[in-house]
């Protein structure tokens, strides 16, 4: 959709998942470090989270496709009618389609043991690459500022595609996961920024050929990423602190009593078995 809402929808999608990953990733890393387990031995709660995450991807992809196709001025599933019909909406729909495929891969990895490890990350990397590929040809012959804000978006998109592809082979790498989180948050916030620049909710329109606007937007992109890194770092620190505190929580007197009674009962059973054998 060539309006603010059309940019706010994918922006909300990436912000939601970027913030969620910045909470889930340190939780998983903290568990792996404390228990030294691998993917197959993770507790069921992590698989349930992956299943819910994949289901949400499929749902948001479906909503995105329906919104692009069946808004009042959309193509309504018509690609050619004496000429190409709303190709911009079709490109956005294609982008959502591949994120839906990524969601299906998440569901398969969460529900089946025979699915190759890393398939979910590779599918997500493919979805990001397709998004960048589409946007690269999305802004040809557009005004200078319009082209520039979308070109900056490609930095976050292709950066996320590369880091996520590496995750398929370097599983549970904390640095790559933090990079994916920060780039997802950056992409989400930058979609909103594109909407404010091209379709301002109030005030005058931006001058498309003003070089000063180009310089400011480039600087603004760096600010967005600084905020994304700060949010990721804060979430990582908070989760590590909470999980570490829960792991090191002193045992209460009641728990000590229960453990002692369990030990006593087990020792009594052992003595009874020895007496029976005699």
Describe the structure.
This protein is mostly helical and 278 residues long. It contains eight helices and no strands. Helix 1 packs antiparallel against helix 6 (174-198) and helix 2 (44-70) packs antiparallel against helix 3 (87-111). The longest helix has 37 residues, at 211-247. It is globular, with a radius of gyration of 25 Å. The model is unreliable at 251-256 (pLDDT under 50).
Defining key terms:
278 residues; mainly alpha
Gyration radius over CA: 25 Å
Mean pLDDT: 86
**Structural class category:** mainly alpha
Give a count of the beta strands, DSSP E runs of length 2 or more: 0
Largest sheet: none
Shape: globular
Continuous helix count: 8
Question: Which helices and strands, and how do they pair?
Answer:
Layout: H1 4-35, H2 44-70, H3 87-111, H4 119-136, H5 144-169, H6 174-198, H7 211-247, H8 253-277
Helix pairs in contact: 1-2, 1-6, 1-7, 2-3, 3-4, 4-5, 5-6, 5-7, 6-7
Quick structural gist:
This protein is mainly alpha-helical and 278 residues long.
């Amino acid at each position: 959709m060539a309006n603010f809402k059309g940019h706010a929808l994918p922006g909300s999608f990436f912000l939601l998942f970027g913030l969620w990953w910045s909470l889930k990733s340190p939780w998983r890393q903290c568990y792996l470090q404390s228990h030294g387990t691998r993917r197959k031995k993770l507790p069921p709660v992590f698989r349930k989270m992956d299943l819910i995450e994949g289901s949400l991807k499929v749902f948001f992809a479906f909503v995105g496709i329906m919104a692009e196709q069946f808004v009042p001025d959309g193509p309504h599933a018509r690609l050619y009618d004496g000429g190409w019909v709303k190709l911009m909406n079709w490109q956005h729909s294609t982008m959502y389609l591949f994120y839906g495929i990524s969601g299906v891969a998440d569901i398969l990895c969460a529900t089946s043991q025979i699915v190759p490890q890393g398939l979910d990350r590779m599918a997500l990397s493919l979805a990001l690459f397709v998004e960048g590929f589409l946007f690269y040809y999305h802004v040809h012959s557009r005004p200078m500022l319009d082209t520039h804000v979308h070109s900056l978006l490609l930095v976050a998109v292709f950066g996320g595609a590369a880091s996520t592809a590496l995750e398929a082979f370097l599983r549970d790498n904390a640095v790559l996961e933090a990079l994916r989180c920060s780039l997802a948050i950056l992409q989400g916030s930058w979609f909103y920024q594109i909407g404010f620049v091209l379709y301002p909710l109030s005030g005058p329109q931006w001058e498309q050929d003003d070089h000063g606007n180009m310089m400011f937007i480039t600087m603004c992109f760096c600010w967005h990423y600084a905020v994304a890194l700060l949010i990721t770092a804060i979430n990582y620190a908070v989760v590590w602190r909470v999980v570490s505190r829960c792991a090191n929580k002193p045992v209460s007197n009641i728990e000590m009593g229960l453990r002692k009674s369990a030990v006593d009962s087990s020792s009594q059973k052992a003595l009874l078995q020895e007496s029976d054998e005699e």
